[in-house]
Amino acid sequence: MPAATGGLEAESLGRRFGDVTAVDDVSLQVRPGEVVGLLGPNGAGKTTTLRMLAGILSPDRGRVMVDGLDMRADPIAAKRRLGFLSGDTQLYQRLSPREMLRYFATLYELAPARATKRIDTLIAELDITSFAGRPCGTLSSGQKQRANVARAFLHEPQLLILDEPTNALDVVSGQFIVQAIRRARDAGRAVLLSTHIMGEAEYLCDRIALIHRGRIVDSGSLEGLLQRSGQGNLTDAFLHYAGAATGATTA
Amino acid sequence: MRFSIVRAILFKELRETLRDRRTLFMTLGLPVLLYPLVILAFTRIAESGEDAIAADQSVVAVWGALPVPVDAALTESADLALQPWGEAPAEVREGLPAGRFERRDPQGAEPAAGQTAGPAASSPAGPLRRSRGGNRETEPENPVLAAARAAVASRKVQAVIVAWPDTAPAFAQGDAVPLTVYYDSVRRQSSVAHDRVATALRDARDRIVDERQRARNLPGGFAEGLTVHTRNTSSAERRSGQLLGSLLPYILLTLSVLGGMYAAIDLTAGEKERGTMQTLLCAPITSAEIVLAKFLTVWLLSLLSLVANLVSLSLTVSRLLPADLPGVGATNLVLALAVLLPVTLTSSALFLACASFARDFRDGQTMLTPVYMAVALPAGVVALPTIELNAWTAFVPIVNVTLLVKALFLREASAELIFLTLLSACMYAAVAIAGAVHVFHRETVLVGEKTSMRTIFERGARAGGTPNAGFALTAFAVLLVVQFYGSLSLRNLPIHWLLVTLQYGGFLLPTLGMLALFGFDARRTLGLRRPPVVALVSAVALGLSAWLFAGGVVARLLPPPESLTRAMERFIQLGDQPMPLWVVWLVIGITPAICEELFFRGLVFSGLRRLGGWPAVLGSALLFALAHASIYRLMPTFILGVVLGVLRWRSGSVVPGMVMHAINNGLIGTLAQRPDLAAWFGMQGASGTMPWGPVLAGTAVMIGALGVLRLIAPAAGDDPPAGAYDTSAAPSRP
Fold first, then answer.
1. Contacts of B15 in chain A (CB under 8 A)
2. What is the nearest CA distance from B20 to chain A, expressed in angstroms?
3. Which of A6, B68, B506, B706, CA to CA, is 20 to 30 A from B183?
């Protein structure tokens, strides 16, 4: 694999939990200004893969490079360059969104003046103003996820890792997140997106990787995937690969 | 470690915790409001009950005919209302005068004196003799006992006095008058009635004795025989300390620990349950920063709870003390706070480590309840009057600290015992903190994967690595306890055998055992390298000079007590008999040089080496000094430890330290055996104060030798290589 210059590069990642192999030899690349989808059924190893890429879990083997930085050798610098957002990520119930953003600005070691400016900008851009001072425990799911997006975007990361970010959101809130992802891509950020919503993947992703039983079973552009699977849409292609991997047949 | 990050997490955790009403209530609400309210309400109820009992007369049944002076004394007592034959069944009412019932002695009771109102009776209850052991007061079942029990149980009378058929003849003949008082010790009213009857009967006894003495023209006090005046030498402060010391340490410890327990659950399992731990873990911070911040939060909340409990309980308990006893003084408060600090450190780290394995708050409560019991129950030992702080109990976790608080309240804690207790308490705290750090390096624990608590005890070592700081601290704590109890158990051995056994069995074997068990690289861990010649020359010079500085300067600054000086002399001389010098050098010089150096400048030093050169030197020196288990030897051994550490650091080898250690100890042992040599230095005995001349000369040589050491470049390969054993770098094992 050539030396990474930006975005995300994962090389032969593997992770076991006891006797269970959760991820086996997964390699991925997400370039700046690109959205890559990581799709797979439940239990396929998506979350473990994303956690390894975000530096939350250490891989048993393989290597993760973020913006040219080795996650194992320099996790602090690598994490500064990525933002992680998960659908089941919660906020501090007893802090307000503004307090929470201020807290993470300190953790990301943003200069106070820059932190204040970024927080004010994000609160305005993401339409958080009306609930910026309320405890997060009192917010609706959509409001919480907006605050979460602000947290993930706070330090202007070069790489965004999004694990089912629109999970359990209504259409309006989901669309808000989708637009935020598009703006991030347009701003030249690398985005790795895991989702169960095929329409969302078709709409957003430049490339797609299908993972099943811990292995990447196919990856490439949407057109390429459809061509290789012989299916007419992403849902059928997804079912085709999932069925092939399990030995089942699909219509 | 970035302290700005630690501070940010700490403040955020404190802010969140203090906004949580549940944790806030457990930390502050309980001590400040609930406990004083409950205790004061309880005592108020108890006091009003006592007042009611004191205001009422005790109704006492009298079965049978009492001698006149006895009847008069009872009748004159304003506290008693006599009821002749009150509640007596017909069988007793008829049987007693008819002589059908006889007095029955309790089983195992002493002879007749046990039932008489003898003059020597001095119990608070008056002349009614109470035998030791409650069973002796219970006579065999008989109709009168059954009737008296029923009468008292009916609550219409509080006690029953029975005059037996032989009562009147005994009075008439001038014998001891037999009477029996039946009462129920469990019921307060009955117990009070018994005391009042006893007082009246003591008055009756005095009247009978006076009358008999007068009738026989005997001097007053003839029947008294002996007048004993007992005086309590205990001051009011000590009596107060006895009461408070048996109560406060236990309550304080359990309540303050409880305050930290809920915070620990909230900060670990609670955070996982709320799904925010993952958010934190993807931020650019290290697990060490997270664990330190969370540990400080739990500890600060424990501390807050401790202070709140301390103030609240001291005020409340003072209210409960008898009026003649002083309350909890400010000095006692500060001492208790200081002594309990290490326990809050230990409990906070333990709770944090264990709660990390829980997946939600409820799971955390289930997991921490046994941990809480394990901390709280030993503290109850403080209430046992026979268990005191001594050399044995000073190393028992939790128990030692509660006993120390009690000893401080009683003003009988010695400096050595305070030192030993705090030393062991701090060691246990350090081990608990190392355990918490170890757990937080297990990332699967933090992200909420199901992980067994057995992973706490996973070795996680990579073959060929070196230990880390946590391992070094834990090994030291274990060896310290083994050494301490070993020396107590083997104290009957001759001193030279005791030393050899402790050195080889307590230092060398465990060190080698740990190397083998954990697969550490023996050469790198112990510093088994050929040293530079300059280092060896410096070591010889330091061995000849450092003891002069350490002993000469520090002995003046912190002179040890005479008893310790004598004990040390006897120790260095290996007993009371002269020993050949080769034995002295072998036992005092070479053996500790090998065993202690391999442990302190080997395993401990390489464990602390990851923290930097000076931290390793100072840390290993501090542990070396603490291992000598005496506050008076702390400073000299620390100085020697620093010099030995510098030797190890600069040379990269343990050998120069061994050389210096052997010469240092061997010289002191030689002076102890050869008073003529000590006198040549101007000393009186090996532990006598060194004159300034040799001290200054030794100091100059020591400084010169240390200066020479600076010429040596730090040994290549002494720094731990990347990838050597370090739990933070090791892959987690779910």
1. 94-95, 99
2. 8
3. B68
> Residue B328's pLDDT is what?
62
Q: Residue B700 to residues B542, B572, B696, B697: CA-CA distances in angstroms? A: 10, 26, 6, 5
For chain A, positions 202-241, list CB contacts with chain B under 8 A: none
Residues of B with Cβ-Cβ distance to A56 under 8 angstroms: 278, 281-282, 443, 447
- Residues 149-188 on A with a CB inside 8 Å of B are 151
**Residues of chain B found within 8 Å of residue A58, distances taken between Cβ atoms:** 443, 731-732
B588-636: pLDDT as tens digits: 889 999 999 999 999 999 988 877 888 889 989 988 988 886 777 778 8
CA of B7 vs chain A CAs: smallest distance (Å)? 10
pTM above 0.80, yes or no: no
- What is the DSSP code (8-state) at residue B56? S
Residue in the block written with tokens 């001291």: B314
CB-CB under 8 Å, B276 with A76 = no
- What chain A residue is nearest to B18 in terms of C-alpha separation? A94
Average pLDDT across chain B, whole number: 80
CA-nearest residue to B729 within chain A is A72
Distance, in Å, from the CA atom of A14 to the CA atom of A61, rounded to the nearest integer, reads 5
Q: Which residue has the tokens 């299908």?
A: A210
Domains of chain A as residue ranges with CATH = 8-89+160-246 (3.40.50.300)
Nearest by Cα to B412 from B566, B242, B230: B242
For residue B516 the two structure tokens come to 């083998």
Question: Does the pLDDT at position B23 exceed 90?
Answer: no
Percent of all residues in chain B with a pLDDT value above 90, rounded to a whole number: 19
Considering only B282-296, B382-396, B670-684, which range has the smallest mean pLDDT? B670-684
- DSSP type of residue B597: I
How far is the C-alpha of B124 from the C-alpha of B178, rounded, in Å?
20
Phi and psi at residue A217, to the nearest 5°? -95, -25
Asked if the Cβ–Cβ distance from A106 to B286 is below 8 Å, we say: no
B20 touches chain A (CB under 8 A): yes
Strand-pairing partners, residue B163, are B179
Which residues of chain B does A80 touch, with a Cβ-Cβ cutoff of 8 Å? 284
Interface with chain A: mutation pick from B278, B285, B359, B452, highest number of A CBs within 10 Å: B278
Residue ranges in B56-173 assigned as alpha helix (H): 68-76, 90-95, 143-153, 167-173
Please state at what angle helix B399-409 crosses helix B361-379, rounded to 10 degrees.
Answer: 50
Alpha carbon of A81 to those of A105, A152, A154, B6, B54: distances in Å?
A: 13, 11, 11, 21, 79
Query: How do the domains of chain B map onto residue ranges?
Result: 1-52+237-458, 56-215, 491-722
Strand partners, B126: B123
Strand intervals (E) in B156-211: 159-163, 179-183
Q: Of chain A residues 125-144, which have a CB less than 8 A from chain B?
A: 135
Tell the residue number behind the tokens 């050399």, with chain if given: B391
Contacts of B286 in chain A (CB under 8 A): 75-76
Residue A172 — very low, low, confident or very high, per pLDDT cuts 50/70/90? confident
Residues B124 and B118: beta-carbon distance below 8 Å: no
* Interchain pair A94, B16: CB under 8 A: yes
* Across B171-190, average pLDDT: 91
Residue B457 is classified by DSSP as G
CB B335 within 8 A of CB B413: no
DSSP class per residue in B684-714: SSTTSPPPHHHHHHHHHHHHHHHHHHTTSPP
What pLDDT does B107 receive?
A: 63
Long-range contacts of A65-72 (CB under 8 A, 24+ apart): A65/A4, A65/A8, A65/A9, A65/A10, A65/A11, A66/A8, A66/A158, A66/A159, A67/A4, A67/A6, A67/A7, A67/A158, A67/A159, A68/A3, A68/A4, A68/A5, A68/A6
For residue B234, pLDDT over 70 is answered with yes
